[in-house]
Amino acid sequence: MSTSTTTPRIGYGMRKDAVTATYAISAGSRARFKEIAHRSGMSAGHFLEVLADQLPLDENGVPLFLSEQAAERNEEPKLKAG
């Protein structure tokens, strides 16, 4: 009996307006992201979609963890323009 190690994925053609997300990040960050997604029972793409939909934001649309860190330093959150 073989055990499947594949992560459940959203069915082919189920996403509307699907695009490929291509971001330059460190290999370590990518591996960590994929591991978190896998442990959550999702593909990395599905996990990214859920994260984007569920990430708590402040009144300015900035993720809470960034605005809280900035508030502790008495400064505005610094985000790179993309």
Quick description:
The chain is about 40% helix and about 0% strand. With about 80 residues, it is an all-alpha fold.
Question: Would you tell me the structural class of the helices and strands?
Answer: mainly alpha
Number of helices: 3
Biggest pleated sheet? none
Order of helices and strands: HHH
Tell me, rounded to a whole number, the average pLDDT.
80
General form: elongated
Number of strands: 0
Question: Topology, please?
Answer:
Layout: H1 27-39, H2 44-54, H3 64-72
Describe it.
This protein has 82 residues and is an all-alpha fold. Helix content is 40%, strand content 0%. The chain contains three helices and no strands. Helix 1 (27-39) crosses helix 2. The longest helix has 13 residues, at 27-39. It is elongated, with a radius of gyration of 16 Å. The N and C termini lie far apart (48 Å). The mean pLDDT is 80.
